[in-house]
Amino acid sequence: MATTSSRPVVEIGAAQARRPVDYVWAVARISIGWIFLWAFLDKTFGWGFATPAAKAWINGGSPTTGFLKGTGEHALGGFFGSLAGQAWVDWLFMAGLLGIGLTGAGATLGLGNLPVVQRTPWLK
User: Fold this and answer.
1) Half-sphere exposure in the Cβ direction for 63 (13 Å, CA)
2) pTM of the predicted model as reported, rounded to 2 decimal places
3) Structural domain tally of the chain?
4) What domain of life is recorded for the organism (predicted)?
5) Rounded to whole angstroms, what are the CA distances from 108 to 44, 112, 115, 122?
6) Does residue 39 form part of some domain?
7) What is the spatial distance between Cα 84 and Cα 103, in angstroms, rounded to a whole number?
8) Per-residue model confidence as pLDDT tens digits over 65-87
């Protein structure tokens, strides 16, 4: 007994023309993603751009302290200042930097094929 499968046939015509704005958006996405990915790597390993090695996350530094402590004189400064340096805030902050970095620069540059990105739908 033979089984037949009917799948829709999709014909691909001539290569779809790319508009110049498509390239602008691609460069913008890669650039913004790279900024966040670099911030994650620099705060994690202390490569010396914005974070010295002594204050790196892997050396016991807190990636949120400098960012949130400077909000003391603003409207919600007391609230945000109290969050600075807490472990759960550090983890969420770093996860956000990595997530934006991987979805921006990573997916565009081919890092979207990494297993962690394939397993996690919101990183795609």
Assistant:
1) 23
2) 0.68
3) 1
4) Bacteria
5) 23, 7, 16, 15
6) yes
7) 26
8) 888 877 767 788 788 888 888 99
